[in-house]
Amino acid sequence: MIYIFVGVVFLALSAMKCYVYMRFLRHNRFIHKYISLVFLLFLAVGEILLFVVRDSHFAHWQYLIVGSCVVLDYTLFIACVCVDIFRSCLFFVQRYKSKKRTHKIPKNDTNNLRESENKHFTSSHTHTDCDIFSSNRRVFLQIMIDGLVAILFIVFSVKSLSNALSVPPIKKVSLRVPNIKGALSIAMITDVHIGKTLGREFLEKVVEKINALNADIVVIVGDLVDDKIHRITDDLEPLRYLKSTQGVYYVAGNHEYYHGIEPILKYLSTLNIHILHNTNIELENVNLAGVSDLAGLRFNYLKPDLESAKKGLNPQKPSILLSHQPKFVRLNDVSDFDVVLCGHTHAGQVFPLSFFVWLDQHYVYGLYDLPQRIENRNHSPKKTQLYVSSGVGFWGPAIRFLAPSEIVYIELESR
């Protein structure tokens, strides 16, 4: 399955390079076409290396450089698409103005004008949509377009890398739940993906930002790690210093299964982290439950078990469920819970991949009111709210485009 996915990705990247070269780089007035070809070849080699060394152990900066080839490839493509859209709009505006001028000409002169226009529009040129301009204006427009592509490429690349590598901002979310005594605050992180590119320095800053919130509870909702545990024990050490009044709680994500979930869970338990594997715990204000990830079904190990997770919930307190993948709520009845917290989606990570995430998960990012399941018409089920976080880190290359990361600060109040 992974090879099919990689094949599709490489096919898409190749198509993007062809588009960029044919539409812009081949006739760029700033860069010779052979230099453009060498640049695209360099990106292709880097992308192949990223796949080849994905399971090898290298320094964080080495993965960052190789992964940046994908970032540059994508942002250059997006810059070209944006400029192409702008150029098309400019063409239609000029075409509209040309037609408007035609209507003002007397009827006996219209045929002559149309013949002149037809000759003008059918003249051969690399960029036919610019043929309505004079020769000098076409040169100026081409220079402007090349410059605009370069500017957008730089802006998109810097912003995408910055969104991925910077410590996320705090996203505040207020939720109203029944039966809660007093206010309760939860700091939520998910999809940190410590391993290939992100390491100890990044996690230290995340922990520092969480501790500044003075939250009652800290929850880590899966995909904390993205490498073999023996390689990243030092990187994870800052988690030991997470502060909260009622503890730090964790559920596994799919990437923990990929890298050996048992030793990962064993090590995390030494960092003062409470692991919720299909179980729940009664805290001062709430019941907090957690289920293992759906990847457990595929690996036939540590499978998710909602019945075990909700066994013994105190009905006098609101209940919160931690589940890494949001599609878990579509496969299971979670109406016994007031709030479900998920991650996994990265909010798409790269636009427009959010559409494909929606096809798989249905819930991509943000707060949702889940559909009510009424089995007994005499009983009105309680409202269940789902929050899907965009996550802290990233998977694969260091890019987040129109899908910023976040640390979530949830405030629970009485409904």
Distance between the termini: 46 Å
Poorly predicted runs of 5 or more residues: 120-127
CATH superfamily of the largest domain: Metallo-dependent phosphatases
Question: Which outline best applies?
Answer: globular
* Mean pLDDT score: 87
Bin the strand percentage: 5-15%
Task: Quickly count the helices.
Answer: 13
Spatial extent as radius of gyration: 27 Å
Largest sheet: 6 strands, mixed
Query: What number of domains?
Result: 2
Query: Mind telling me which CATH architecture of the largest domain this is?
Result: 4-Layer Sandwich
User: In CATH terms, what is the fold-level topology of the largest domain?
Assistant: Purple Acid Phosphatase, chain A, domain 2
Strand-pairing-aware structural class: alpha/beta
Q: How much helicity do the residues have?
A: 40-55%
Question: Strand sequence of the main sheet, in spatial order?
Answer: 1-12-2-3-4-5
CATH class descriptor of the largest domain: Alpha Beta
Order of helices and strands: HHHHHEEHEHEHHEEEHHEHEHEEE
The total of beta strands comes to 12
GO molecular function: hydrolase activity
Protein name: Metallophosphoesterase
Pfam families: Metallophos
InterPro entries: Calcineurin-like_PHP (IPR004843), Metallo-depent_PP-like (IPR029052), Metallophosphoesterase_sf (IPR051158)
Features of this protein?
transmembrane helix; Purple Acid Phosphatase, chain A, domain 2; membrane; 2 domains
